[in-house]
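stage 2 :: seqdesign
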């Protein structure tokens, strides 16, 4: 059974008729000047997608650049914290496809800004920063910038599940690449890093590619995660937790147990308790297949205690435009 049949992932994506501030608050186009500029940005980006699909990548890059110029003119619009970099973000994605990695790196850098008040990065991608920032992290890993890649990945972990949503994170996600008593540490390698990044994408409904107008299904991503990190317990525990009422859940639990390290075995013990609890609740309510909607607080609690996840201003500022 596909994950999407077990889990309805509601991701609030910012459309091109809404802008976002650094604090992710929505800024609605209440005046005709702003509305016209947002419409023009949408048109340039839509035309860029069309040009790319027709095989004219250079034309697409130029159109993204024109859209980006308009977006930059909106910085701080009407004394707000408006910060949009949706066009340059899509340009970065296209440059990655073209293997123009140095240019892609420069473009990705423009998508992020250092937020002094929060002591962390702010994203202008206008989309789910957890998925979008992982594209940046994977590029950094690809070109050998390991510490920078880890810093971007840790930025994602700090934001992975702000609302304690158990349907996103049914098992605490604590995969790190530096030793930490609260984390499950694995030695960095490009394959292990890609596996962790793809798992997070799957948890958030899959990856997206606006250039071709489609994304990659979570099931496909998880299959790739298993190939990249065959000894990692998490994809099996994740599937078992979401599908606890399914006939194959016990097999997934056993597969997770066989791969779990010491701290991960603690998570598995807790998962068994939680599954027993929700089964009892559902039996009382005569809803045997109901999802467990209780908050998942343990993941955020563990991550907040992790020293390794504290922002590194020096590295993060080098990955942002200012």
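stage 2 :: out
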């Amino acid at each position: 059974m596909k994950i999407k049949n077990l889990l309805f992932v509601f991701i609030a994506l910012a459309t091109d008729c809404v802008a976002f501030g650094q604090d992710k608050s929505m800024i609605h186009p209440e005046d005709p000047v702003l509305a016209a500029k947002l419409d023009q940005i949408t048109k340039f980006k839509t035309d860029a997608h069309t040009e790319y699909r027709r095989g004219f990548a250079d034309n697409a890059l130029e159109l993204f650049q024109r859209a980006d110029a308009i977006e930059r003119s909106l910085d701080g619009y009407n004394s707000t914290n408006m910060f949009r970099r949706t066009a340059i973000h899509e340009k970065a994605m296209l440059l990655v496809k073209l293997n123009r990695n140095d240019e892609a790196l420069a473009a990705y850098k423009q998508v992020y800004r250092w937020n002094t008040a929060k002591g962390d990065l702010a994203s202008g991608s206008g989309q789910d920063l957890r998925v979008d920032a992982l594209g940046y992290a994977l590029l950094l890993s690809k070109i050998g910038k390991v510490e920078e890649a880890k810093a971007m990945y840790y930025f994602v972990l700090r934001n992975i599940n702000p609302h304690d949503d158990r349907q996103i994170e049914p098992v605490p996600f604590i995969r790190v690449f530096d030793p930490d008593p609260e984390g499950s540490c694995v030695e960095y390698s490009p394959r292990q890093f890609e596996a962790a990044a793809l798992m997070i994408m799957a948890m958030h409904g899959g990856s997206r590619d606006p250039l071709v107008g489609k994304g990659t299904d979570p099931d496909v991503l998880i299959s790739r995660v298993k190939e990249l990190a065959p000894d990692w317990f998490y994809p099996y525990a994740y599937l078992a937790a979401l599908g606890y009422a399914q006939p194959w859940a016990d097999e997934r639990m056993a597969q997770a147990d066989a791969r779990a390290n010491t701290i991960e075995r603690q998570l598995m013990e807790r998962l068994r308790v939680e599954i027993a609890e929700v089964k009892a609740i559902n039996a009382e309510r005569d809803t045997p297949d109901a999802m467990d909607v209780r908050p998942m607080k343990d993941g955020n609690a563990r991550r907040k205690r992790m020293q390794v996840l504290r922002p590194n201003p020096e590295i993060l500022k080098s990955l942002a435009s200012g």
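stage 3 :: structure notes
- Residues 3-318 form one domain.
- DSSP finds 14 helices and eight strands in the chain.
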